[in-house]
Amino acid sequence: KKEFRPWADQDLQDDTEITRGDDDEWVENNEEEDLAHVPYSPQRYPEETMLQRAKDFYSLMSQRRSVRFISPEPVPREVIDKVILTAGTAPSGAHTEPWTFVVVSDLDTKHKIRLIVEEEEEVNYRQRMGDKWVHDLARLRTNWIKEYLDVAPYLILIFKQTYGILPNGKKKTHYYNEISVSISCGILLASLQNVGLVTVTSTPLNCGPQLRLLLKRPANEKLLMLLPVGYPAADATVPDLKRKNLEEIMVAI
Ligand code: IYR
């Protein structure tokens, strides 16, 4: 029986690529370098300070919401640059840093992205997703019309590099590339929240190949996530969702 998994992107191979075609195209990672190890002693806080910082960070993050109504008001480019630099601090398999963040502010490119995403998402909602999934999303009032793709001052498209390409053209393995890039997206979301910007984690199903070509990204890169970024619109609304409490999400043994 054929599995029905409409959410599985047809292009996004979500395992580290192990089916290597031609063996001599691949090399060991960091073949020649001997890596020095250096002392590390980060900031340590008194216990009361730890608790206060834990509470403050929770308070900040608990205010994060997925926002689909974004203001066209400009956002300083330097803020976006630092937020992306922060996302790049994520841990990655064998420190391969398998991410590319494409930041789009050009109006024409944003509009082309909108046309690609809306055309594909309409097929997703009408055909690929199926009645149950569409029904499960109805209460979020999301559909295939994505006005934020034109309106948001920045679109950040996060690509995972399924393998690396060295200066000599050889390929190197990007272990756990999907989970590594997903962690960096989490840090990106936290950094955006930290500066008072909003976004919605959109995963445009089956738009990857077209968007990759539009943005002139190489074939080893696959679109993982698309984040429209800006200030919330003055009349923005969000669904009145509640989060699980600690007892529901934690098991202490
Ligand atoms: N990718 C679609 C559908 C969608 C899926 C889930 I799961 C959501 O939580 C929200 C939307 C879209 O972006 O509209």
From TrEMBL:
<feature type="region of interest" description="Disordered">
    <location>
        <begin position="1"/>
        <end position="24"/>
    </location>
</feature>
<keyword id="KW-0560">Oxidoreductase</keyword>
<keyword id="KW-1133">Transmembrane helix</keyword>
<feature type="compositionally biased region" description="Acidic residues">
    <location>
        <begin position="11"/>
        <end position="24"/>
    </location>
</feature>
<dbReference type="GO" id="GO:0005886">
    <property type="term" value="C:plasma membrane"/>
</dbReference>
<dbReference type="GO" id="GO:0140616">
    <property type="term" value="F:iodotyrosine deiodinase activity"/>
</dbReference>
<dbReference type="InterPro" id="IPR050627">
    <property type="entry name" value="Nitroreductase/BluB"/>
</dbReference>
<dbReference type="InterPro" id="IPR000415">
    <property type="entry name" value="Nitroreductase-like"/>
</dbReference>
<feature type="domain" description="Nitroreductase">
    <location>
        <begin position="62"/>
        <end position="231"/>
    </location>
</feature>
<keyword id="KW-0285">Flavoprotein</keyword>
<dbReference type="GO" id="GO:0006570">
    <property type="term" value="P:tyrosine metabolic process"/>
</dbReference>
<dbReference type="InterPro" id="IPR029479">
    <property type="entry name" value="Nitroreductase"/>
</dbReference>
<protein>
    <recommendedName>
        <fullName>iodotyrosine deiodinase</fullName>
        <ecNumber>1.21.1.1</ecNumber>
    </recommendedName>
</protein>
<keyword id="KW-0472">Membrane</keyword>
<dbReference type="Pfam" id="PF00881">
    <property type="entry name" value="Nitroreductase"/>
</dbReference>
<dbReference type="GO" id="GO:0010181">
    <property type="term" value="F:FMN binding"/>
</dbReference>
<keyword id="KW-0812">Transmembrane</keyword>
<comment type="similarity">
    <text>Belongs to the nitroreductase family.</text>
</comment>
<keyword id="KW-0288">FMN</keyword>
